[in-house]
TrEMBL record:
Keyword terms of this UniProt record: Aminoacyl-tRNA synthetase, ATP-binding, Ligase, Nucleotide-binding, Protein biosynthesis, RNA-binding
Keyword check for Ligase: yes
Origin species: Geodia barretti (Barrett's horny sponge)
Protein name (record): Tyrosine--tRNA ligase
Occurrences of domain Tyrosine--tRNA ligase SYY-like C-terminal (ranges): 225-310
Gene3D superfamilies given in the database record: HUPs, RNA-binding S4 domain, Tyrosyl-Transfer RNA Synthetase
Entry's EC annotation: 6.1.1.1
GO cellular component: cytosol; mitochondrion
Length: 314
């Protein structure tokens, strides 16, 4: 990648691991490692003493990471590895492995983990990771849902806002927490940083469309709708099977938006079922002119967050 800063090369470690067989792994990569040293690592002892224990795959993971460092050092002149604080053991193992193989003194640096107020780290292991996809919407929504106890830390560590500006934002947020001012600013800053101004605009437009009425959704093209709802369950239904008295709730059951007619009636009684952003009424008839969006699409929403897309075919 080329830009205003230094050139960046992104590589996939599969390109070198695909040619490494089991015999080579054991004889060439695993041989320099000592089990006693691996067992002495704090990360290993913590995992082994946990209720789940430690799998063989987890125990051997430092070997894979060490070989990655060796390859990057010898093929791409990489001398420094940077990782989260929980990677200290893996990084030091890699530095020692490179020294034994090449005689070179390479280096490692760790940075504090980004954790929640309860001490849980943000990442795929903890099950609360957000993935960098082509769409900016998931990242934007993930950040909007940051807890009040965590948002100040995230503003300080994930944005370039001056500390004094973060303090002002948090003061305003404390005065009116229901406005989610701090979360919105966090989502704006990070989404713009990762996806650019255009990506931020898309995320804001998508959010307005998702949680607005049918006018907001109808302002999007079919391609924009498909991209927006690419991450939600999708059902294809045959348009020709519709009758003049088919109800919206019947379609919701048929498409498995909800499990049963009883569940539909419960949602309708509490006003929790929406189609294209509008609340569904009891016995509301499905009208293609009203309930279909561009591209023959219909969007159901259950409650505040659960969406389901229907694609109509002939």
């Amino acid at each position: 990648m080329r830009g205003a800063g230094p050139d960046i090369r992104v590589v996939d470690n599969w390109s070198w691991w695909k040619d490494v067989g089991a015999v080579e792994f054991v004889s060439d990569i695993a041989r320099p490692f000592r089990v006693a040293s691996m067992l002495a690592k704090e990360s290993v002892s913590q995992r082994m003493s946990s209720e789940e224990g430690m799998s063989c795959a987890e125990f051997l993971y430092p070997l894979f990471q060490a070989f990655d460092f060796l390859h990057l050092h010898t093929k791409h002149n990489c001398w420094l590895q940077v990782g989260g604080g929980d990677q200290w053991g893996n990084i030091t193992s890699g530095c020692e492995f490179v020294r034994k193989k090449t005689g070179h003194l390479v280096h490692g640096v760790t940075v504090p983990l980004l954790t929640t107020s309860s001490g849980d780290k943000l990442g795929k292991t903890a099950g609360n990771a957000v993935w960098l996809t082509g769409s900016s919407y998931p990242l934007y929504q993930f950040l909007l849902q940051t807890g009040d106890h965590d948002v100040a830390t995230c503003l300080h560590r994930l944005t370039s806002l001056p500390p004094e500006e973060v303090d002002v934002i948090m003061q305003q947020h404390t005065t009116a927490p229901e406005s989610f001012l701090a979360q919105k600013r966090l989502a704006e800053e990070v989404t713009r940083l990762v996806h650019g101004a255009e990506g931020l605009t898309h995320a804001e437009t998508a959010t307005k469309a998702l949680f607005g009425d049918h006018h907001s959704l109808r302002s999007l093209t079919s391609d924009e709708l498909l991209n927006l709802f690419s991450h939600v369950p999708t059902t294809q239904l045959n348009f020709d099977h519709l009758s003049s008295d088919t109800t919206v709730s019947e379609i919701a059951v048929q498409a498995k938006v909800v499990k049963s007619e009883f569940a539909v009636h419960q949602l309708l009684s509490t006003g929790g079922l929406y189609v294209n952003g509008d609340r569904v009424a009891e016995n509301e008839t499905f009208l293609p002119s009203l309930h279909m969006l561009p591209g023959n699409l219909t969007v159901f929403r259950v409650g505040k967050k659960t969406h389901h897309l229907i694609q109509w075919t002939h």
